[in-house]
Design a protein that fits this description.
The complex is a heterodimer of chains A (about 400) and B (about 300). Helix content of chain A is about 60%, strand content about 15%. Chain A has 2 domains: about 260 residues, Methyl-accepting chemotaxis protein (Helix Hairpins); about 140 residues, Glucose Permease (Domain IIA), CATH 2.70.70.10. In chain A, α2 packs antiparallel against α3. By secondary structure, chain A is an alpha+beta fold. Chain A has 5 helices and 13 strands. Chain B has about 300 residues and is of the alpha+beta class. Chain B is about 70% helix and about 10% strand. Chain B has 11 helices and 4 strands. In chain B, strands 2-3-1-4 form a 4-stranded antiparallel beta sheet, with helices on both faces. The two termini of chain B are about 30 Å apart. Classes of the chains: A alpha+beta (about 400), B alpha+beta (about 300). The interface between A and B is medium-sized, with 26 and 30 residues.
């Protein structure tokens, strides 16, 4: 819950409690002021609901903005990596293409050399086997002939070996060429795929940026709206406070006139006033205080908020009991607190129970200390939270100072 | 003594003109025969010709240095049957090959020379035999530097057979001519004996012993035969010498002129003259006997 929301809800609860105070104590002469007060309070409530809604929307916009910025950052990092990868692949393709060209040139040269070598070999074989030998007419040069035949065999063998060597070299080059072509094809496919991925990332980033821009526009709009609403609420609260003061003054005068005057009690005495209630006070349920009263630091938004009550974590569906004797002054839904029940204990003392699922008492019904007034809602985690606020003379006091609660 | 001396040349005194004709004829004959004899002696039939054309080729390995190859050639040249051994380096082998196959020259202008070096071994003409060739070839095959020995294994037997045939043919013809000389000489001696029968009978009546007269006639025939053969052989040798000097290419088939003066050649010429002397004496005796037989 944001600081603004809490502040608004607290103000609302204060107004609601004040409303409850006024009715039993209002004199017939002040009916016009009460009516005006009710009307102003209704408007205030409406505005606060709007403010709460706007604040929630703003919070949601902030979350969206953070998420969107995170996504944009992630996409930017991905795009950078993608561009680097594409650059590497491009360099690799260039290098492969250069090697491919060299290999093709080598293969062409080897093919030409192979053709020439084969032609030479065939011509040499023709020369050898057609007896195109100088001095062949001398039949007595037997040894010379024998040597020349041997050398011709050496020559042909060397030529054949040369042809075979060129053939092997050409085959190796052709294999290398095939391998390079396969590598180029694979790399080009990879590059095309990565380009698509890059385009997709770019498209997503653009989309995310547009969304972020929308969110920022929405956020600015909501901030403006919230600011305006808060100004209105402040003015309205000022009006309501003034009216409340008038009502209290009238009540005090009325009590004084009735001889039942009593000394005004200071807010510092509020816990004692609660303790002096008939039957004393008891905890509304067994649970642990998870949100404390007063000024607290909200780590989510890094702000200091002021809690006007406490939140008690208890098992889901637990029964909520009245902390003391009194009368149900209000039972209804309040935005941000769910179902809220207010018990008037008299003497300007009120206890407020928020986030109930069901009410087990009705407005105007008298309750005693420990009377079950409602139940907490169920939840998948098995835990629910009760909002408890104590007010004395229109001022919220720390419930843990008046009621023994497990913290 | 004078009577005895007169019996030596009795035929010359009794029949001078026919004897001059015979002597001239025999001299010319011996010139030819001496020429043939010396030619046969120097050439060994066809041995020199064939030996000049036959060579054993020791093909060396490709990586043999020239110095080692030349050392090997010197060692081979020292073998008894070897007349000469010459090392040809790969470049010389390549040039020789291109000379033999001029059509290949343009085919391998820039190519590497694939030819190995080799040693060409010539055998002495008088040692051109299968055993000597095998001796040299087997000696070469045992040398690690030698990759292959080309000794004409396929055609060498035919060559040696031709050599033997030429040898026997040459000497056979020579012998036939010599036999012809003997037969003709016998006939001439017989004819002269018949022609001079009266003169011989007169001498016998005067107390000259027949045997003595026959002996002196045979002795004079031997001496004249020796002298004629020697002179003819010398003349034939001189002619052969001039012939070889004039036609040097014949040295390959016959031999160098200087070999004519070798002691061996001279000894053979002397032996030949002696042989002719014996044949002349025999012809004289046999002719006398034939003349007596005919008279009876």
């Amino acid at each position: 819950m944001t600081q603004g929301t809490r502040r608004i809800l607290s103000a609302f609860l204060a107004a609601a409690v004040s409303f409850c105070i006024l009715f039993p104590a209002a004199a017939p002469a002040a009916r016009d002021i009460a009516a005006e007060l009710r009307q102003e309070r209704g408007r205030l409530l409406e505005m606060k609901e709007r403010e709460e809604k706007t604040a929630q929307e703003l919070t949601e916009a902030l979350r969206k903005e953070n998420r969107s910025k995170g996504r944009v950052g992630e996409l930017q990092a991905l795009l950078t990596r993608q561009r680097s990868l594409l650059s590497r692949i491009d360099r690799k393709v260039s290098a492969l293409n250069e090697r491919l060209e060299r290999a093709e040139k080598d293969v062409r040269e080897l093919e030409a050399a192979h053709g020439q070598a084969r032609t030479d070999l065939q011509r040499a074989e023709v020369v050898a086997f057609a007896g195109q030998r100088a001095g062949a007419e001398d039949p007595w040069q037997l040894s010379a002939r024998e040597r020349e035949r041997h050398f011709m065999r050496v020559y042909l063998a060397a030529d054949a070996e040369g042809v075979a060597r060129i053939t092997r070299a050409r085959e190796r080059k052709e294999e290398e060429l095939s391998g390079l072509e396969r590598q180029v094809a694979v790399t080009e496919r990879t590059m095309a795929r990565e380009k698509k991925v890059g385009e997709s990332l770019l498209s997503r980033q653009e989309e995310e940026r547009r969304r972020l821009a929308d969110i920022e526009r929405e956020k600015k709009h909501k901030e403006k709206e919230l600011k305006s609403l808060r100004a209105k609420i402040a003015r309205m609260e000022s009006v309501v406070s003034r009216v409340e003061r008038q009502v209290k003054e009238r009540e005090r005068r009325a009590r004084k006139a009735a001889g039942r005057g009593s000394a005004s009690r200071e807010p510092a005495e509020a816990p004692r006033r609660f303790a002096s209630l008939s039957g004393g006070l008891s905890a509304p349920l067994a649970g642990k205080v998870v949100t404390r009263f007063g000024r607290q630091h909200d780590t989510t938004f890094d702000v200091t908020i002021e809690n006007r009550g406490v939140e008690i974590e208890a098992p889901s569906g637990a029964s909520v009991k009245s902390v003391g004797q009194g009368e149900v002054a209000f039972a209804g839904a309040v935005s941000g607190f769910g179902n809220v029940l207010i018990v008037q204990h008299g003497g300007g003392l009120f206890s407020v129970y928020g986030r109930l699922e069901t009410f087990l008492v009705k407005q105007g019904e008298a309750v005693k200390r420990g009377t079950v007034v409602g139940r907490l809602p169920g939840s998948p985690s098995g835990k629910s939270v009760l909002y408890l606020e104590l007010r004395a003379g229109g001022t919220a006091i720390d419930p843990t100072s008046a009621i023994p609660l497990d913290s | 003594m004078s009577e005895q001396t007169s019996l030596w040349w009795i035929d010359w005194r009794l029949s001078r003109l026919p004897l001059v004709r015979e002597t001239i004829g025999r001299f010319l004959f011996f010139c030819l025969l001496g020429f043939a004899l010396l030619s046969l002696l120097l050439s060994g039939g066809a041995s020199r010709f064939l030996a000049d054309r036959y060579a054993i080729t020791a093909v060396l390995r490709a990586d043999v240095p020239s110095a080692e190859a030349e050392g090997l050639a010197r060692k081979v040249a020292a073998l008894p049957p070897v007349r000469s051994a010459a090392y040809r380096d790969p470049e010389a082998a390549w040039k020789e090959f291109l000379r033999a196959y001029p059509g290949l020259d343009p085919l391998r202008g820039a190519g590497r020379n694939p030819m190995p070096g080799y040693i060409e071994i010539r055998i002495r003409p008088d040692r051109l035999t299968r055993a000597d060739v095998d001796l040299v070839a087997s000696a070469l095959r045992s040398v690690p530097l030698v990759e292959q020995v080309l000794a004409g294994e396929e055609w060498l037997p035919r060559l040696l057979r031709a050599d033997r045939l030429a040898f026997w043919a040459g000497w056979g013809i020579f012998s036939a001519f010599l036999a012809g000389f003997f037969l003709v000489g016998r006939l001439q001696e017989r004819g002269r004996a018949v022609a001079l029968a009266g003169d011989f009978a007169f001498l016998v009546e005067r107390g000259v012993p027949t045997g003595r007269m026959v002996f002196f006639r045979a002795a004079s025939a031997a001496v004249s035969g020796f002298l004629l053969a020697a002179a003819g052989t010398a003349a034939g040798g001189g002619a052969l010498f001039l012939f070889l000097r004039k036609f040097p290419f014949l040295e390959g088939g016959i031999g160098p002129p200087s070999d004519l003066l070798l002691p061996r050649t001279l000894a053979v010429a002397v032996l030949f003259s002696c042989g002719v002397a014996l044949l002349s004496a025999a012809a004289s005796l046999l002719g006398w006997r034939a003349a007596l037989s005919g008279r009876k």
